[in-house]
Amino acid sequence: MATSVKADSGGSPASVPPSPAQHRRPSPSSLRSKIYHWDLKASPYAFIAPFFLCFAAFGLFPLIYTGWLSLHKVQLGAEGQAQWVGFENYAKLMGSEFFWHALVNTFTIGVISTVPQLLMALGLAHLLNSKLRGRAFLRIAVLTPYATSIAAATLVFAALFQTDYGLINSLLDVFGIGPVQWETSKWPAQIAISTIVTWRWTGYNALIYLAAMQAVPNDLYEAAALDGASRWRQFISVTIPSIRPTILFTIIVSTIGATQLFGEPMLYGGNVGISGGSGGQYQTLSLLLYQTGWTNNNLGRASAIAWVMLLILLLIGAIQVITARVNRKKLGG
Amino acid sequence: MTTQLPVAPATRRSRFALGAGDQRKAGPIAYVLLIVAALVSLFPLYWNLVAASNSGARVQQAPAPLLPGSHLLDNLSVAWNEVHMGTALVNTTVVASVVSLSTVLFATLAGFAFAKLRFKGRNLLLGLVVATMTVPPQLTVIPLYQIVTDLHWTDTLQAVIMPSLVAAFGVFFMRQFLVEALPVELVEAARMDGANSLRIIWHIVFPIARPAMAVLGMLTFVQSWNDFFWPFIVLTDNGTPTLQVSLAGLGAGNHTVDSAIVLAGALISTVPLLLVFAFLGKHIVGGITAGAVKS
Amino acid sequence: MRISGNSHRSARRTALASAAGLAAISLLTSACSASDDDGGSSSAGGKITLHVGTFNAFGFDNVKGAKLYAEYEKSHPNIKIVEDNVQDGQQYWDTLKLRMSRNSGLADIQAIEIGYIAEATGPTMADKWTNLADNPHVGDFVDWKEKQATTTDGKTIAFGTDAGPMAICYNKDLFKKAGLPTERDAVAKLWTGDWSKFLDVAADYKKSAPAGTAFTDSASGLFNAVLSSQPEQYSDSSGKLIYDTSPGVKTAWDLAAKAAQNGYSAKLRQFDKPGTWAAGFKNNKFATVACPSWMAGLVRDNAGPANKGKWDIALPPQNGSWGGSFLGVPKSGKHVKEATELAAFLTSAASQAKNFAVTGNIPSTKAGLADPAVKNSKMDFFGDTPVGEIYTTIAAGIKPVPIGANDGQVKTFLTDNGILDIETRGTSPEKAWGNVKKLVDDKITQ
To answer: Is the pTM higher than 0.85?
Structure first.
């Protein structure tokens, strides 16, 4: 069907969409027209309604309820006896060094796992986006980590990173690098956890980038090639700008994922997973939340952590939007 | 915030208009890099097989085994019989199928509305969608559990399905795709021809969104398949287990865990997904390749 | 406008039809399962199904265990028993807390690990369990066991399953190589009466230790062992936390910290997932391990047949108990009476003796401990060691200790964030103690 559509759409750019409401059909008195107008007005809401109906019950309610809990002193299992404390939970968080440690850990693990992950995914997508023998196999191969459950993946990596006998330390030993303490030392532990995250998600992001790259018009490359741009140059000046919304999407999703990082550090740490290692060296905000709410039964404080996480993400989002705007202005967009 | 995502630069063509990406042949370096990436991706899976085919004692003994052993069938059959894997497999298939179908359907509808239709409160609502993605699931399970128990849904599949019928991620995903991929003139033209919204959805949005729908469907399927925490809370392994819930009951000994059995179970749970990848993956990835352009 | 070709349309129809089909199937399945009872138990055709929620392995089951379910079903033809098992105790407990809070999704009988018994008897949970204080079966247990499951106002919320009387398992080979006695009475004499003598032996061992070995597996294990024998631990008799002034905690902390700092421990983490600790048994990396009765089975399984005859069990410096579990009956269950009867059966002296024969779990009932089948038992792996006699003797000598609702959390901070930090990360004991105090002050609200 695309052939006919292609003709219809011509080559006109899809920039800012003009409002559909600007188009008015002739013969405004007919019933059909009334239906048409009603349809025009109501359809957006009809399209989002199924989503928002489910969403209100299973997404929005928990969000608001959590906010309500965060203003109370309340134990898990005794929500009925919640006691109003105002912003005390937040104040206590701000004064808690464990919270700040977890915040910093979340940030560092987030950077170590997200940045290389997305860069590698971009490169991988670029490589996969050329004519290749065994392309289907390679594409599926890089996607297999995503199919592996966190539990299985973490079990495997915990064995690989095992300090005394693990494959990775044996390998490093060959190069004369002494045994790295992959769990007890802070940075090695954070790198090991980031490795699990990166391993699981790189192929996934590569697939999403690949989908976007497939849609970049070939003539853009041809034009660039005519201008004498190298392949690398083309990647930077054609591919990257062309898939910018997709990149932004993956950055947002990965940032959220990094902020909520939970399963990998918890399972990696085994029985000290929830406290993020004996010294809390890799305790993330989600782990702290879990420890506070479930292990220590302090549901009010745990809810406050959730809302702080939300506010942090909103802040990151705002910064991203502002940078994007500034960049666009710089580019003269 | 994120509602104001940068719109594609004006010089860009619509993804729909033309192009099949960079269509040149890969050089030898590309092959080397790709093969390394494939090996790195596959190694832990291979090791999963190694562990599942050795004895539990061997797996927990240093140095870790690197070659498959002879216990694969034994371990698989113990794993299969120890927990309710058969039921779990059926349940998980049902849950993952329903969840991904409904997620894709509703996300496409809402994503289209957010991407191309103007209506009051659009930015606010989209902001809300993205904001909800940020709430950590470790906490939302508590209010969710209250809802589910009030509805008397514990130990039923709908307790797992209902909260996942829609996904904020999916809406955001489809919105981002359609912003780029769907030329607004197409919608305009259809409107001019008197097409109602349903026709537009059916004849324009769905065909164009198909590759993204396929990707979202697959991602949702995998995610739902591997989901553990929420199903674990609302289901018991003897009621209506999903695979991940079943796996939680695996390998328990008297104060010990048999890793080989656990990993054999993990293998059983991963293989169906790999089969889906093997059969549909080609189709889906192929769909992306050909999808918008040639079909 | 012409938008779509026919072939695509039909392909989409097929897809849509299959989607609808799947949705229908799912609705059907959920509709069917929706009719199940909330409590997870149901009575179909006059037959009552009782669910038993467990973690790890309890040895009741009909496959690997003592077939107690089958036995009970035979004598009670109207009862059917289903066990819901979760391997990970932490996951089990966290889920149970949420389910208890809503009285939903609970099994008719729920197992409770000793580490969580104080929480289960605490203010938020105590009233959700059936009070068993008036059940005559309560009198069957050794008194310290049921005291642990009794609230401050006298409600008993669970029956005891096994007990964890603690001895010391030691590697005779390594002891011999280090010039220490190997005969179990002589070994016990080295440290009898005082844990600090245990560290003196550690110092002796270290002087002539075989290369690559340590005296004990982990400092946290030592901490747990020492603490378990102290008359006062984390809380006083009113349930108030006194860990920072408790002489018991101080003794255990000082000894464990000393062991960690002096290199008496192999710095292993017990029960770690990659199995380094387990491998330590196989490769003879340490000479002793604090050995509650359930640990004896682990020594056997981890060390493997190749090390048969190398290990023995000696009496500890002081008697103590580490581990053991309970069975409670949630009040909200549909068949509380039947469930209570089943719980009493599963924890009866006769059942505990049968369980012991299969799993080696030491009974917590007086009659079970006196049962000749338990008392005179041996384990093939330990040769002629009178395993049953050692453990039943220790179990009889244990004294009840007051417990508080936050004990489990404080213990986690002390071992996982305190002792382990000294041991594996080289933190000084003073700093580690400060960290623990900060953790308790920050995270535990009393």
So the answer is: yes
